[in-house]
Design goal:
CATH topology of the largest domain: Dbl Homology Domain, Chain A
Number of helices: 10
CATH architecture of the largest domain: Up-down Bundle
GO biological process, one term: intracellular signal transduction
Number of domains: 2
Keywords: Guanine-nucleotide releasing factor, Phosphoprotein
Shape: flat
GO cellular component, one term: cytoplasm
GO molecular function: guanyl-nucleotide exchange factor activity
Largest sheet: 8 strands, mixed
CATH superfamily of the largest domain: Dbl homology (DH) domain
Order of helices and strands: HHHHHHHHEEHEEEEEEH
Strand content: 15-25%
InterPro entries: DBL_dom_sf (IPR035899), DH_dom (IPR000219), GDS_CDC24_CS (IPR001331), PH-like_dom_sf (IPR011993), PH_domain (IPR001849), RhoGEF_Guanine_NuclExch_SF (IPR051336), SOS1_NGEF_PH (IPR055251)
Distance between the termini: 48 Å
Strand order of the largest sheet: 1-5-4-3-2-8-7-6
Length: about 290
């Protein structure tokens, strides 16, 4: 923040800032200042003498840790901007002054790496605190952190949905997302379609919200020689208030059915494992009840 972000306002360096970066500090750094302020409270360090207080610290700050979700959601925009102007003289100059071996993008990745490290720390602490005072709180703190990582991960997929006409933020909480084989069996339409559909599954990425189930098709695009970025083009949606579910499909314990309008449309969905299928079914059941 001091060596790069502040330097963008340094009059002696202004002429080195590439035009693509003008007024885009917020995009490049996201809410890094907010994360910095949050960690400046040093609350974890206060637990060095009393490690049993650590779990409480995580539980108390559960809401605040959502700032990481905001950071991760902005990350693709930040990376795109970095690809555009990361090799500019401005950044080279800042890096030289700081005497850093790594360039700025390595540091912008730190918050993403950090949010995934807490759960490892809590798991290690749990190993050392079997049935002692505070074990239950540690378990709750771990569950909280795993939850936050899951929602960060889910929201990263969600921002890559394209072609959906509505506003995904109005669909309620995103509960689950993942890739499946899907077969369709619709009463309407030509019988030929039905027969063809039976054999070859479609690859679909499903997003389960409290109000809606979205079916998308995953597309991977190469961004100018860099890593592949996935996007999910919207195909169709089912309102959860009109959906029914069949938990078992004959002949395959990884399949289940979601049907619409009294079986007018039937979607046969195959998960990659029985565990995954059961997780999805229990989440869908919760929504339906």
């Amino acid at each position: 923040l001091q060596g790069y972000a502040s330097e963008m306002d340094n009059p002696s360096l202004v002429h080195l800032i590439p035009s693509a970066l003008q007024n885009k500090k917020e995009i490049l750094f996201g809410n890094l200042p907010e994360i910095y302020e949050f960690h400046n409270r040093h609350e974890i360090e206060n637990c060095i003498e009393n490690p049993e207080l650590l779990a409480r610290c995580f539980l108390k700050r559960k809401e605040d840790l959502q700032i990481y979700e905001k950071y991760c959601q902005n990350k693709p925009r930040s990376e795109a901007l970095w690809r555009q102007c990361g090799d500019s003289i401005f950044f080279q100059e800042c890096q030289r002054k700081l005497d850093h071996k790594l360039s700025l993008d390595a540091y912008l990745l730190k918050p993403v790496q950090r949010i995934t490290k807490y759960q490892l720390l809590l798991k290690e602490m749990l190993k050392c605190s079997k049935n002692s005072e505070g074990t239950a709180e540690l378990e709750e703190a771990l569950a909280t952190m795993l939850d936050i990582i899951k929602s960060v991960n889910d929201s990263m997929h969600q921002i890559a949905i394209t072609g959906y006409e509505g506003d995904v933020s109005e669909l309620g909480k995103l509960l689950m997302q993942g890739s499946f084989n899907v077969w369709t069996d619709h009463k309407k339409g030509h019988n030929k379609v039905k027969d063809l559909a039976r054999f070859k599954p479609m690859q679909r990425h499903l997003f389960l919200y409290t109000k809606m189930l979205l079916f998308c098709k995953k597309r991977e695009e190469n961004t100018d020689g860099h890593e592949k970025t996935a996007s999910y083009s919207f195909k169709n949606s089912l309102k959860m208030s009109t959906v029914g579910i069949t938990e078992n499909v004959k002949g395959d314990n990884k399949k289940f059915e979601i049907w619409y309008n009294g079986r007018e449309e039937v979607y046969i969905i195959q998960a990659s494992s029985v565990e995954l299928k059961n997780t999805w079914i229990s989440e869908i059941r919760k929504v339906l009840t």
